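Continuing the series of single-chain predictions for the mutant panel. This is the parent chain; the variants come on the following pages.
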Amino acid sequence: MSLRRSRVLLAVAVLAPASVVLVHDLSFLAEFGPSFRAALRATGHDDRWASTVAIVLAVSTLLVSLALARLAFLWLKARSLERIAGTRSHVDAGAYLRLIARIWPSLAVVTAVVFLVQENIERLRVGEPLPGLEPLVSGPSARPIEILGLVSLALAALGALLLWGHTMLVARIEAAHRRSTARGRAPLVRRPIVPMSRALRPPASVNLARRAPPSTPAS
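Parent structure:
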């Protein structure tokens, strides 16, 4: 498995729990309005579901906060090294869009499967017949599948931003480091090769044989 593929799968695995709980509760909110909490309890969502939602959202918020703090640190480091090396960064927005296009479909499919399995189990628990695909495609206003598409797109954009930002900043740091290292090396200066006969020959300005004897002062 390539590194790019494994990173996409990791992003989907991290984002899927938040995507499922958001799609679930937003679907009930769109269908029942202010009384959606009563509808949740009537369909088998007890206090354990509320605790699960709170935990998932808290953990997801913590992970995103840590990732953003990491990006801020890398950005400051990249800016500092680029000022020293005298380099300029290039932003590849196309790579970010391509990363969204890889994460979004996988995240949407995983969210849809988990959502349907959960809804079927909950309906069965309260004595209702299995609804099949009905929880995903029915709704008085916004259908859950539309909410699923929007939520998974927003989370895919967030996950892609974190992955793309980390990759881009690491590349900028490495490029600036290579540039500063190359500029810091002293250039190799080759000395000219002097023939042995010229090296042993006395300088022309010093000719002891032709120097006049020192003059003696007159008595």
